Amino acid sequence: MTAVAIPGLDKAPTTHSGVLSWVREVAELTTPDRVVWVDGSDEEAERINAELVEAGTFVPLKAKPNSYWAASDPSDVARVEERTFICSEREEDAGPTNNWVHPDEMKATMTELYRGCMRGRTMYVIPFCMGPLGDDNPKLGIEITDFAYVVASMRVMTRMGKAALDKFVKPDGTEREFVPALHSVGAPLEPGQEDVPWPCNDTKYISHFPESRTIWSYGSGYGGNSLLGKKCYSLRIASVMARDEGWLAEHMLVLKLISPENKAYYVAAAFPSACGKTNLAMLQPTIPGWRVETLGDDIAWMRFGEDGRLYAVNPEAGFFGVAPGTNWKTNPTAMRTIEQGNSVFTNVALTDDGDVWWEGMENQPRHATSWKKQDWTPDSDEPAAHPNSRYCTPMSQCPILAPEWDDPKGVPISAILFGGRRANTVPLVNEARDWQHGVFMGATMSSEKTAAAAGKVGEVRRDPMAMLPFLGYHAGDYFAHWLEVGKNAEASKLPRIYYVNWFRRGDDKRFLWPGFGENSRVLKWIVERIEGKAPARETPIGYVPSAEDLDTEGLTEPLADIQAALDVNPEEWRQEIPMIEEWFDKIGDKVPSGLRDELSALQQRLG
Ligand code: GTP
Ligand code: SPV
Ligand code: MN
């Protein structure tokens, strides 16, 4: 056997034997022209950004420092749930909500796709750590990718480079475990072939091997498909680790709410993709004296602390936020974060003065370059920005970042919110009777599909705990795990659970609730409930405030709208029952009996 000489392969800045052998194996399979070990330095970032500009992937923005505009291939704009696979050894472990292929078969198929797939390209080796570097047990990974855009984005979204690699070998020489995460755009270059700004492949696979804690992604450069520390590691693989180890890996924001008395409450909230996590995490309260600080906008890892409370850590270091709808009124915090630069904007519009714009932002330009790289004017039939266009920006720039954001201990959660996008039925806020009832709310929550994933937008689907596309194992086992977490804790120390809906509409389709900063009124009611101070009416679905129980001072919306947003209509809920039954039947025997009990109790209360 002759070892292949690939420039850079032997420059490994680590002695970790698992890393060395895996990187060599991948290089020999994918045959890149060169290997770059990513160190995370500023000089390296400058070089990579310059290369991306040279390749036409990045256009530097004149109006924001160290920031870039990128437009993807028009076919590569969102997560591809149909092409996402949980390749557990046994099909029943993936469950009825995931696509499954046996790991041997998937590895055989993808090995052939990967063979020679990095020809003509650079293979980047990115060491990264999900969660604070100071953790006693850091969650490490190596992403191998052939797309420099992924390197630039991982730099924003994770703790990466030398600082992460230093954690791979303990001071005593022991090698830590890591998640190998392989990514290729699947677009080898033949000698002399010209590259395109956004290489990708019509064939896409986003595959997860839960038993070996391995990720293989092929064919897409879009965030959730290519930034493998994010959904692939921190949710799909981590949910399996969490099941095995007794913790929770969730699609949740984490915020700190500070009352006028300066008391802090930490809140975690699970809303499906493009349903308001970033906006709630960065909320600017409209009620006097209340403040919010941000800890995370997409993912929370929650474990019990020594005091028996549930503590949350955000594994990420950046925001990969939905651009459309973001403006100085809806989300001033996001605007102030991106304004400082060091950001990548993908599939938004590029203005003629070298800035970014998207639908919903102030100062609509008279002319711009659309995300499809076409001339755009306000008269154009198509939007300037793709509905799932995104900004990628460092958390450290967030002006209301909570000082404890990087603390490995995490923050103790007082309330968990589940929420979806429902035009009817689901009231603005609803408090669970207890943990089991709250788990039932999460397990049966539903939402209209958004542009964050390929497919039809607007269809109502069950999205348990906002994890439907991100569960690494059987949904029924996942519900059982949530119940188990509650059983192992003292009830008084568990977070209270709420079900919220900012998206209920009136007959004329307008939103009944103003949302955004006004959601602070709902958070205030929740905190007052926790303190035993706020009233609520007991309804068949849970404890719901009346309009007068909420602080509505200064709200300009008609009282009738607020009342309609809070309305619990038993007839609408009775129509929900068969849909929940159908959902439970889909999950099958593994639906825990506690949740079946909750369903019958709900049915009975609805009469
Ligand atoms: P992912 O990053 O895909 O997981 O999404 P997310 O849950 O962080 O969603 P985000 O906060 O980015 O919101 C998505 C869209 O919903 C944006 O267009 C927002 O402007 C809009 N939105 C957020 N909060 C509210 C709200 O309270 N009311 C209304 N009407 N729209 C909202
Ligand atoms: C989501 O779709 O929930 C996102 C964006 O947060 S992505 O990282 O692409 O999954
Ligand atoms: Mn998300």
UniProtKB/TrEMBL annotation:
Residues binding GTP are 274-279, 390, 421, 516-519
What does the record list as GO biological process? Answer: cellular response to glucose stimulus; gluconeogenesis; glycerol biosynthetic process from pyruvate; oxaloacetate metabolic process; propionate catabolic process; response to lipid; response to starvation
Task: Return the EC number.
Answer: 4.1.1.32
Could you name the active-site residues? 275
Give the protein's biological function. Answer: Catalyzes the conversion of oxaloacetate (OAA) to phosphoenolpyruvate (PEP), the rate-limiting step in the metabolic pathway that produces glucose from lactate and other precursors derived from the citric acid cycle.
Subunit comment? Monomer.
What is the protein's name according to its record?
Answer: Phosphoenolpyruvate carboxykinase [GTP]
Question: Which species does the entry assign this protein to?
Answer: Prauserella shujinwangii
